[in-house]
Amino acid sequence: MSRKTHVALSFLWAAASFLLAPSLVLAADTFPRGPGFYFSIPKLLTLLLVYFCWVRTCWWVSQDAVAVQMPTALWNPLLVGCGLLGLLLVWLLPWYWLVSLPLLLILYLTPSLVYVNLRNGRVSTERQVLTQQHFNELARKYLHLNLGEAEQEQDLGPPLEFISKSQNQTEDAATRVARVAASKGFRAAKEMVWEALERRATDIHLEPTKEEMTVRLRIDGILHGTDPFSRSMGDSVLNIFKVLADLDITEKRKPQDGSLSAQIDGRTIDLRVATAGSVVGEKMVMRILDKSQQIIDLTRLGLRDRLREKIHAIAWQPHGMLIVCGPTGAGKSTTLYACLNEIDRYQKNVITIENPVEYQIDNVTQIEINPKAGKTFASELRSILRQDPDVIYIGEIRDQETAQIACQAAQTGHMVFTTLHANDTVTALGRLIDLGVQPFMVGDAVSAILGQRLVRLLCPKCKVRYKPNPDLLRKANLPVDKIKYFYRPPEEGDRPRPREGEAVPVCDYCGGTGYYGRTGIFELLEITDRIRDLIRCDNPNLNAVRQEAIKNGMKHLQEDGLRQVMEGKTSIQELLRVSK
Predict the structure, then answer these.
(1) DSSP label at residue 146
(2) Residue 364 to residue 348: CA distance in whole angstroms
């Protein structure tokens, strides 16, 4: 071996000895280490458990902060940074059980619990986490343990069952109902719908205030207040209906609409839900449609015999257009359903375009429009004209295109039934012309216009008879000597005074309102040849049309309503309220 080789080997040995010295010292028998593995298994398992919990919490906060509209730019770095700092302290500091692990838990749990506390204050009760209700739901879901609270709430309450209508394929309707059945406020939601059905309500209004959720029921066209909810309970009830109607519960500003059903006593009730955001919270209105109430005929609408015969004759015409006008909630659709019920639907092809389809009619093709999918009144009307219809029912004329197609259909051998928002029959003509339809086309297409309102009927159990004021009768052009009595709802002085400490007695039949049910008052404008000539002018004079209609025997709404007053069916105050 040469001298250079010996020197090189000596240098390598010295370097290796220097580098391996710490390892040899640690490997010596004198190094104080415990028996078994180098790592402590309990410490490693607890550290991994805390680590995975921290990772899962960071992922949940990142997703949840977006849903509840909390700043992700603040909470994501905060939770990640605190967790990394805790892991660094575990690596650097000794005394794992006494110092390192407690510091890691403090750095992990403190921002997590602060976030949970803040987000629980911004969401409804059913969406809150780390609460008793949340722990009960987790126990039922993962451990199959029923602590009794949800079952007790589900079993109590009225015999009413909700049915969800879902278009979301990821979750079926039964699962959605089961999910909300365990939520806070489910029993209150059932009781609210039950009360609305018992009181014959047609709409339920949930209106938020700063302190509570106001509940009002529309009964016989008038809103009546009922017991309100607390704000937290009201938000829970509102979210339950949003879940059942397949609406986005995280969206509280934009308007949404959907539907669900309820079964009670063997009949199915449809509930159409519409929400809208306000400055103090989200408002909801639910329209109640009872499918068990079949379509009524013309004899039950409150029409005079002569007027009913005229409507029946118009409905049987081979072509033309019958327009029913009035404000929202005046019963226009019900009247046209009754007209459809008059014709022979087995020998005629009847097609309806509605938004939405409220009642099912036998042997009638009913089409529901969907503007979001491009199905509008105009587009659907153009398509059904190629399906050889005899009778066409258009839910509402809203735009120029729909109005023009409807008038063209009425002139080409089709009978068209439709509605229009207008105060009276003559105004409806002007409204149709304002939409852009040529006057000559309106004059040739329209057969008749029926204006109507709904007046409340006096309660037969508690209505009060009184002598009307002669001056009032003269103003109404009524014979003073022939009318002896009118009727009105009971007033405060008509009821017996209660004893001290007792409530004021009210009628059990009407609930103290003095009215029970509604009927219609009508105004029919028949388009005669003379009126048709007046309409065909370039600038038709509507006052001349009105005068000509009165000459032909048209009675105004108030005149037809006075018949109901003279027969004792309604009051003069109610007539003036709806026919102003």
Answers:
(1) -
(2) 9
Report residue 576 as tokens.
Answer: 């003036």
Angle, CA of 255, 259 and 264, to the nearest 5°:
140
pLDDT digits (tens, 9 = 90+) for 320-340: 999 999 988 888 988 999 999
Tell me the pLDDT of the chain averaged across its residues.
Answer: 83
Alpha-helix runs per DSSP H in 37-98: 41-67, 72-92
Which among 454, 330, 494 has a CA at the least distance from the CA of 396? Answer: 330
Long-range contacts of 131-137 (CB under 8 A, 24+ apart): 133/184, 136/182, 137/182
Q: Which residues contact 124 (CB under 8 A, 6 or more apart)?
A: 232, 235, 236, 238, 239, 249
Residue 143, CB-side half-sphere exposure with 13 Å CA sphere: 8
**CA separation for the pair 229, 186 (Å, rounded):** 13
Residue 90 near residue 112, CB atoms below 8 Å: no
Mean pLDDT on 115-130:
78
pLDDT, tens digit, for every residue of 371-408? Answer: 878 888 888 999 999 999 999 999 999 899 999 999 99
DSSP state letter for 487: E
- Nearby residues of 164 by Cβ (< 8 Å), 6 or more positions away: 173, 174, 176, 177, 243, 244, 245, 246, 260
In Å, how far are 126, 235, 246 from 186, measured between CA atoms?
Answer: 10, 11, 16
